[in-house]
Amino acid sequence: MTQCLCQSKKLEKLHEIIAVHKGKAGTLIPVMHEAQDLFGHLPLDVQSMIAEGLEVPLADVYAVATFYSKFTLQPKGVYSIQVCLGTACYVKGAQALLDKLAELLHIKVGETTEDGLFTLEATRCIGACGLAPVMTVNDEVYGRLSVEQIDDIVHKYMEMAWKDEEHGDTSESR
Ligand code: FES
Questions:
Q1: What's the rounded Cα separation, in Å, for the pair 62 and 5?
Q2: Residue 135's pLDDT band (boundaries 50, 70, 90)?
């Protein structure tokens, strides 16, 4: 992934965001949200910029970043796999789906595969309980899933990524 030009533009944009919010009350979380939208995650240098810009301790920024599940310190994969662990899905075996995915991708919940392709997450109810157990991959919803289907679904996305690579597309399709 080439970052150079984009990265400097993003940093510039972050400066602007901070400048707009600076000096106002309750701006830390909104700024962090905008920063995460911009970078996809909140690495330490971004947290430092926010802390410096808003004149709050870096420890406060870090505490917020690690407390709220909406924030992530790690870059997200091209495909974000979210398994619902709400009651209906849990009762129908969602944990087994999550375990299978973790085993297959060699990552834990909240982590991203080394190749940057998949991020594995657990979510609360997404309002599709009738389809339990449910998992989503980016915007696609998979319902009434069984562990046996997991392999095929993951491989489908791997193949899509390979095809994109063959055609010269990058992972900027997020
Ligand atoms: S509990 Fe999973 S969609 Fe509602």
A1: 26
A2: very high
